[in-house]
Amino acid sequence: MRLHVADHPLVAHKLTVLRNKDTASPTFRLLVDELVTLLAYEATRDVRVEPHEVQTPVTTTVGVRIAEPRPLVVPILRAGLGMLEGMTRLLPTAEVGFLGMQRDEETLEAVTYANRLPDDLTGRHVFLLDPMLATGGTLVAAIDYVFARGARDVTAVCLLAAPEGIEVLEKAIGDRVDVQLVVAAVDERLDEKAYIVPGLGDAGDRLYGVV
């Protein structure tokens, strides 16, 4: 597994505002969208392209375009939905799937309750979106889910990660396939309730309110 921490002043600035408990939901949603677009620039560095000939106003030249099959962007519901527009802004030709997973607060295990994904992901570059990598259970389950459908090139994009979650992810993936993790920051630790410290609270609640 490859870990990339986006070390950039704008990333750090936006993340600081997100951490502030007084940042209201509308501002929080806007900043998540902007921050994910910055992370998407790093996450798509290895996206597959193919040669493409175009006619310029002066002559014919060969550039590149996103290769087929198109990448697949998969937000993990519900909090990952707040990251979707920021990701697809840089990958407008990508297809979008959905994966509904939630953490059982007693066992801390990830439970899948919905999916809208192609049955065959062979040859697809899959981008998984989940704001928080805490215990690692949800992201491991999501990666295993797309592995089972043939994906072998997976990039996970998270706002924050805890060291414990990264360790779980590394052990679960091993050297099976190429997985990249792109984050804005790696925080200190998990608390006794498995929340990231210092973190930014429950990303889903701060995006959409408590429902």
UniProtKB/TrEMBL annotation:
Cofactor: Mg(2+)
PANTHER family hit by this protein: ADENINE PHOSPHORIBOSYLTRANSFERASE, URACIL PHOSPHORIBOSYLTRANSFERASE, CHLOROPLASTIC
Tree of life domain: Bacteria
This protein's pathway: Pyrimidine metabolism; UMP biosynthesis via salvage pathway; UMP from uracil: step 1/1
Gene3D superfamilies on file: 3.40.50.2020
SUPFAM superfamilies xref list: PRTase-like
Catalytic activity: UMP + diphosphate = 5-phospho-alpha-D-ribose 1-diphosphate + uracil
Family to which the UniProt record says this protein belongs: Belongs to the UPRTase family.
Entry EC no(s): 2.4.2.9
One GO biological process term: UMP salvage
Major enzyme class: transferase
Residues where 5-phospho-alpha-D-ribose 1-diphosphate binds: 78, 103, 130-138, 202
Name of the molecule in the record: Uracil phosphoribosyltransferase
UniProt organism field: Oerskovia douganii
Activity regulation behaviour: Allosterically activated by GTP.
A Pfam family of this chain: UPRTase
Domain Phosphoribosyltransferase, first and last residues per copy: 5-209
Sites where the protein binds uracil: 196, 201-203
GO cellular component: cytoplasm
Record note on cofactor: Binds 1 Mg(2+) ion per subunit. The magnesium is bound as Mg-PRPP.
GO function terms (MF aspect): GTP binding; magnesium ion binding; uracil phosphoribosyltransferase activity
Functional note: Catalyzes the conversion of uracil and 5-phospho-alpha-D-ribose 1-diphosphate (PRPP) to UMP and diphosphate.
UniProt KW keywords: Allosteric enzyme, Glycosyltransferase, GTP-binding, Magnesium, Nucleotide-binding, Transferase
